[in-house]
Amino acid sequence: DTAVSQTPKYLVTQMGNDKSIKCEQNLGHDTMYWYKQDSKKFLKIMFSYNNKELIINETVPNRFSPKSPDKAHLNLHINSLELGDSAVYFCASSQSPIEQFFGPGTRLTVL
Amino acid sequence: GDSVTQMEGPVTLSEEAFLTINCTYTATGYPSLFWYVQYPGEGLQLLLKATKADDKGSNKGFEATYRKETTSFHLEKGSVQVSDSAVYFCALSPQAAGNKLTFGGGTRVLVKP
Q: Can you tell me the mean pLDDT for A26-39?
């Protein structure tokens, strides 16, 4: 069984479009995250939710909006996509600060 | 703010060679320290961790010791295999910031047979 799953795995779209990435975890964790990994493999946290409440909101354009319908799901919606949004986006979850479990990633390409 | 610095790659080794990846950090208090590994096409997996000074984390033949005096958490493995080819990330979780992880830039390791 997949612990943290993301859909889609690949997403290719045009500049200016709006897209969503979905994340689900079946580990029963209370906290979920979105990370962005750029082309140089640099990984940076974007958001974190704990029990559907936003607890970390890094300096991210407001075109990015996370939504957590329940504690097992954390979706990422991106409006007016730009070339610089091209990256791999990782979802993760954790129950404690000790270990975060990562999804397989969604490679977003904006043309 | 908190930061993690690790050696840039790629690091290319022959099988059975000794691997060291340097990692140093800047943080207040006593953060927890981690090494994560990312195999090609996959997400990150926790490799090992240490939560206080002088702790040694170990897993799959990899080791790292939390050195408060040098603010370092260097990763070592005595004899690498081709299957160890991956990107390795050093990370810290601040003492007072719960679950937030700050990552280093990653080090790509390529092990040749």
A: 93
